[in-house]
Amino acid sequence: MRVLRARNAHQLLPEAMRLFKMDGVERNSRNGPVLTIPEPVTLVYERPTERVMFWAERDANPFFHVLEALWMLAGRDDVAFISKILPNMKQFSDDGKIFHGAYGRRWRRWFLGTNSGKVDQLSVIAENLKENPECRRQVLQIWDAESDLGTNSKDLPCNTQVYFSRDHRGYLNMMVTNRSNDVIWGALGANAVHFSFLQEYVAAMIGCGVGRYWQVTNNLHLYLERHEALMDIMVNKAFPSTQYKADPYEEGLVKPTPLIQGSIEQFDTDSRRLITEESLVLKDNFVKFTAWPLLQTLFTYRNIEFPKYKRIELACNILSAMPEKSDWKLAAQEWLQRRTK
Q1: CB atoms closer than 10 angstroms to residue 107
Q2: Euclidean distance between CA atoms 225 and 248, whole angstroms
Q3: What integer best gives the mean pLDDT of the chain?
Q4: Quick one: pLDDT band at residue 306, thresholds 50, 70, 90?
């Protein structure tokens, strides 16, 4: 078992690249040659709410990360909304309509409860840990043997289970188990955002703080044809280089944007409104002042019939209304600026 520990995902990336450079073993996969770590790897996030990846070399997409996370928390599995954010996601659907392994649906409306109805696992787990902070039985199930084992689907869950417990301070800790994970787009990309959102959401349901986040991956890999050059660049930024000075969180340039700033009910209502476009009346702070501006910025950049420089200018104007020192604001601004080159 290898263990990589850091303050946040931004600081973990160079450490992971050094691990692959030193100990990676080349193997074949259904998507081409990969480097794998020949034993399970645990990634430890000391501050999981610092979830934004700022490395320009990585060029993480903040719009997709935030909006897909809201889609998951809403329990969705439809292709329609996600394909507006990232059109290439359509290729992972078996029928062009839904995603078989959609995490949100697995979390909130997939498995049968004791009364034969679909159980919202998040609500049950939160209530149990609220009533009994010492409980160690709170397991969020994602992999479904009946539906997944031996199934030839384009979209089988990579993350299989989540364990929740509260530490000695009462904070919510979370451990995610993963069968196979791409380190760039998966583990230190989408997963670092989506599952830290899940952790913060459940903590808010309980009424407690956010603790640490562990991800245990049975097969952590890196696609050589896509990411070998990135590995070679990022390995030079690993400790004891200047990586911490290059972290906007460490420097105090940004702060984590709280996910739940009011009631869970208002957050859920406004997330649904954002996804379905049924209403523009938004009251929840995160949805109104972070998710909605990000959505409008992306659509402005992509869809308005203006020259590219003008679209970027208009998109940046939308971002200017977001809170100062917002981590997502800076990430979106830098993502757009990279598109000018």
Answers
A1: 24
A2: 30
A3: 94
A4: confident
**Strands 159-166 and 181-182, bridge-based pairing:** unpaired
The residue to which tokens 């990579």 are assigned: 158
Above 80 in pLDDT, residue 137?
Answer: yes
62-73 helix and 327-338 helix, angle to the nearest 10 degrees = 130
The residue to which tokens 């998710």 are assigned: 291
**Cβ atoms 131, 124 nearer than 8 A:** no
Boundaries of every domain in the chain: 2-251, 257-341
Homologous superfamily assigned to 2-251: Thymidylate synthase/dCMP hydroxymethylase domain (3.30.572.10)
Mean pLDDT, range 170-182, rounded to an integer: 97
Residue 134: how many CB atoms within 10 A of its CB? 7
316 catalytic per annotation = no
Structure tokens at 88: 């290439």
Would the pTM of this model clear 0.90, i.e. be above it? yes
Which two three-digit tokens encode residue 246?
A: 């290059």
What distance in Å separates the CA atoms of residue 110 and residue 301, rounded to the nearest whole number?
36
Which of 135, 158, 208, 316 is flagged as catalytic?
158
Q: Which structure tokens are listed for 167?
A: 């530490």
pLDDT in tens, 52-106: 999 999 999 999 999 999 999 999 999 999 999 999 999 999 999 999 999 999 9
Residue range 300-321: mean pLDDT, rounded: 89
Residues in the chain: 341
Q: Give the 3-state secondary structure of 110-123.
A: CCECCCCCECCHHH
